[in-house]
Specification:
mainly beta; eight-stranded antiparallel beta sheet; about 0% helix; globular
Length: about 290
């Protein structure tokens, strides 16, 4: 993860806490895309549950199975999509697992389906390093549709809608910070982070406010507790559902907080919530913190 307390460089003031139950953000893109075949998605995340079958960072939905999504699946990370009628489904599922509930991770997805080499069409980076080892490795075809991403359909953060009528849902349980979408450029992770000069294995955030977002680009810094969907690039704000001012957190990639450690607790009857800051139990037992 990132520094627990950085004393130099760019500071991330806030994150948004999603509790895994009906709290999310959504927006329907209305502008003509700068380029619907080239884009970048970047965000920092801190997981609060592990081993859950599906937790969704991001999802688009139109009808049937037309969609693009980024999710945690049994603690791996998966990017996938499908386009009804085209047969252009793809899945990239990592061998790497994300089970450190004390750490912040950074994910960067660089998408450019104009590339002739399949593996160049979609690159995923974790903490600045490109993922090259996969459980499942099926890339999108060259110049295929955008799988509804960056188009005039509803885009979801923290939620996945499924079913023919879109009424079913999976959720995200954890923290998100510095969420950026760039329309029209497939950027390297160095546009969003850098390795610490004193600790070269530590990946930390940099200021992204100067990036060119494109028509449908967005930057959620979660610094306005009264408007957690505020687009700091100045574009259309995202609509909040189930989120309140109390869901703005100071736990961030540059100010990592101690939370309750669900990896070290006694009795399975414990239930963790509110970003692992609350514990409910029906019997005696204990839980430790993520920091000693």
């Amino acid at each position: 993860g990132a520094n627990s307390a950085a004393d130099t460089g760019f500071e991330v003031a806030n994150s948004c806490r999603f509790d895994g139950s009906a709290d999310y953000l959504h927006q329907t893109f209305s502008g003509t895309p700068t380029d619907n075949k080239i884009w970048t998605f970047s965000c920092w995340f801190k997981v609060c549950q592990i081993g859950e079958y599906d937790q969704y960072l991001f999802n688009t939905y139109e009808t049937g199975f037309s969609r693009l999504y980024i999710k945690s699946s049994n603690s791996t990370l998966e990017l996938g999509g499908a386009d009804d009628g085209s047969g252009n489904a793809f899945i990239l599922n990592t061998n790497m697992v994300f089970k450190d509930t004390s750490a912040w991770y950074h994910v960067c997805v660089a998408w450019d389906v104009t590339q002739s080499t399949a593996s160049d069409r979609c690159k995923i980076y974790i903490n600045g390093a490109q993922i090259t080892s996969w459980n499942t490795e099926t890339y999108p075809g060259q110049n295929v549709s955008n799988y509804t991403f960056n188009s005039a359909v509803k885009h979801w953060i923290g939620r996945y809608k499924f079913g023919s009528d879109g009424t079913g849902s999976y959720w995200w349980d954890g923290y998100l910070a510095e969420l950026v979408i760039i329309d029209g450029q497939a950027l390297a992770p160095t546009s969003f982070g850098e390795y610490d000069s004193d600790s070269p294995n530590i990946w930390k955030p940099i200021d992204v406010s100067g990036l060119t977002p494109g028509t449908n680009g967005t930057y959620l810094d979660f610094e306005d507790s009264s408007n957690l969907g505020n687009d700091a690039f100045g574009g259309t704000d995202w609509t909040e559902v189930g989120l309140a001012a109390a869901d703005q957190a100071v736990d961030s990639p540059t100010n990592n907080f101690c939370v309750m450690n669900l990896l070290d607790n006694f009795y399975a009857a414990f239930t963790f919530s509110i970003g692992n800051c609350k514990l409910v139990n029906s019997t005696k037992g204990f839980a430790t913190g993520t920091f000693g």
